[in-house]
Structures
1.
Amino acid sequence: MDLSLSTRTEGDRTVVVVGGEIDVYTAPKLREQLIDLVSSGTYDLVVDMEGVDFLDSTGLGVLVGGLKRVRAHEGSLRLVCTQERILKIFRITGLTKVFPIHASVEDAVAATD
Amino acid sequence: MATVEVRFSALPGHVRTGRLIAAAVARRSGMPEGGLDDLRLAVGEACARAVDRHRRAAADQPVTMLLSADDACFTVTVVDEAGTVGPVELPDPERHGEQPEPVEPWPSGVGIAVIAGLVDDLAVIERSDFGGSRVRMSWRLPSTRPAWVESSLP
C-alpha cells in the first residue's frame, strides 16, 4: 500500500504516524483517519510526517481540512517534519505560517498553543 | 531531441505513474538527482490537475504527457482534453457526515501556483478551439550530460 497510517497516544495528544506517499490517490485515506479521530472526540493531534516520501497539494488540502476540524473544537493539529523535500511545498504555499511544525514528536507533544 | 510520450487513463492512481516515469526519463536525460524531487512534485501536480479536469468534464480520453530533452532543457508537457470544465464544487460544511465526501482539490490554481515555485519555466495554455489545456514545465540541464543524450536523429 502506498500510504501507511498508525495512531498512538502520548500524554494528552494523539500521534498519527504517516508513512509513504500522500497524493491525490492516497490522501482520502488520511482524510478519513483525521475525520474518524475528530468524530470520536480526539481534538489534539500530532501528525508525524517523518516517514512521508511525497506530499502534494491534495495532501496539503487534507491537512488543512484536519486543522479546520480540530480548531472547530478548540483543538490543535501539529506536524512533525524535518525533511526539506516535504517542507518545500509548505514554504511555497506559505503554509509554514499556518501549521506548527516541529522537529520531533517529543517537541510537538510538549508544545502548548 | 529525445522524446517520450505517455498516455494514461484519467485515474488518481496514475498520477503516481506519471511522476515516476517523468523522474526516470529526467534522470536519464542528465537532470541532477537533487532536482528530481521538485520535478516529481511539479509533474504530479500537473497530472493531478489534468485528471481532475477530465473527471469533472466526464472526458473519456486519456491524459497525455510528453517528455523531451534538448541541449539546454528538460521539458514535461501535460495535456488534458477536457472540453468545458465545470466550476469546482467546494464541500458544503452543513452536509458533513451525511455521505462520504470526495476529496475536493483546492480551487483551481493552487496546483499551478505550486508548480511555479518548482520549475525554471512554466506555460499554461488553454485551448479555446476544442477545449483542453496544456501545462508545459521546463528545467535547465547542466552542460555535461551522458553521451547517449547528445546523439540525435539525422
2.
Amino acid sequence: MSDATVISPQNGRIESAVVATVFCAVVAVTVLYALTRPDQPAPLPLLEWQVSSFSDLTAEDQAIHSALFGAIGEIDWYYYRLQTWPDIPELEEDVLPPFYKDAFWEKNGALQWTMGRPLNNDQGATYYHGAGGVVPGQGSYLLLMGHIHAGMLYSNQNTIWIHDDVNAPYPEIVRRGSLIRAGWKQVITYSGADELERLRGVGS
Amino acid sequence: MLAGAAHAADSAGGLKVGITLHPYYSFVANVVGDRAEVIPLINSESNPHGYSPQPDDMRRATDMDVMVVNGIGHDEWAFEIIEAAGRKDNLPLIYANNAVALLPVSGDQELVVNAHTFVSITSAVQQVYEIARGLGAIDPDNALFYRENAQAYGARLRRLRANYMTQFSELDTSSFNSATMHGAYDYMMQEFGLSVAAVIEPRHGVNPTARQLARTIDDIKAANVNVLFAEAYFSSRLADTIQEATDVQVYSFSHIDAGPYTPTRFEEEMQANLDTLAEAIASTVVVE
C-alpha cells in the first residue's frame, strides 16, 4: 500500500480574487497619481496683446528682438555706471546691435532709431523707438526701459513691443493700456529661464 | 591676456568654478581672472553629445563650489554627474542662458529650442554677464571685479563682431543660401543678418535616415542652397553624399566642443568660423 499523499487541486477562486485585487490596486494607484500629480510646467498663455518671440515673429522681427533683448543688459549697466540712459550715438559708439549701423542693421531693415522720454516722464522711463524699416512685412519696435526711481541702480520693468505698422509713431505715453490702444503688442521673450522651467520644473 | 588681469590678486582660497562646455571655460576664465579656479567637468577631448559620465567627472564635481551650465539641452549629462556625486542639493548652479532669448532650430516644424547659444558673439556676451551676476552673488567680495571683467570681455567680443560685420558689409550676400549639417548656427547667422535654409540632422546629433536624407536633398535643391556647412570636429560622409547630389560647396564650422580648454578658445574658434563664413559668402558671388 502506498504512503503517497494525494493533494487535490485548489479551487481557482482564491487566485482569481488575488489577481483581481492586485489589478484593481494598480489601476487605483495609477488613477490617483494621474489626478494628484503636479501640473507640468508650461509657459503662461499669451494674452491678446502679446506675441511670442519664439514662434510669432518673422526672421527680421526675431533678429531685432534678440538684439534688443541683449541690449537691455548693456543699457542697464550703462545706467548703473553713469546714472543716465545712453542715447543712440552712444549705443552706436559701443557697436551695440540693433542700433549700430552695420550689415546686421542693413539686412534687418535699416531701422531709424530714436531715443525719447514719454511726455509725463513716466517715473524715469525711457524708450528706444525703431521704425521706417525697408524689409517688407517688418514692424516698428519699442524698447521700453521703464519705471526707475531716482537712486535705483537697475530698471526691472524693461519690455519690448512691436507694431504691425513699419512707420508707427513713437508713443507719447508708455503705460501699457496706452500702448495697447495704439496698436502695440508686447513681445514675450522665450528665454533660457523659461526653457529651464519647462525642462526641469524649477526656476533658476 | 585675460580681461581684468590688471586686477591681479592671489587666487588661493578663491572659488572653484566648474564648467561643462568649452565656451564656458573661456567665458568664466575671462570673468574671474586669477581670483578663481576654472574646473572643466569633463575631459577636453570628450564629445559632449550623448556623453557618458566617467568616475573622474564625479571626483571633479565633488571639488567644485559652483558650476556654470548651459542647462537648455546641451549638457544634460552634467546633471547626472552632479546627482551621482551627491551634489544635487549643495552645488549652486549658474544657468548661463537665463537671460538669452532662445531661437528654434532652423527648418524644424516643431519649433525645437536651439541649445547652441554659445556659438554666437551676441549671446555669448549675454551669458558672460549672467555668469558675472551669478558669481558676484556667490562671491560678493569680488562682484565688482567680475562685473568689470565681464564688461571688458564683452566689449572685446563686440569689437570682434563689429570687425567681421565691416568685412561682411563689403560682400554681396544676395546669392548666399546655406544649410548646415548640425543645427548649431542659428544664433551666429542671425547676428550677422543671415539665415540657415535647412539643417540636415533631424535632431541634435542624430543622422538622418535614407528617407529623411532624400527629402532634405530635395529641400536643398528647392531652396537653391549653394553652401553646406559641415562640422569641423565630426567625421561624416554625409556631407560628401549631399555634395554629390546637389553640387553645393562644403565648408566646415566648429561649434567649439573639442580641443584644449583655454581663455581664448571661444574667440579663436569664432574667428575661424567667421573667416570660413566670409570665404563661403565670397564663393557665392556671381561674377558678371
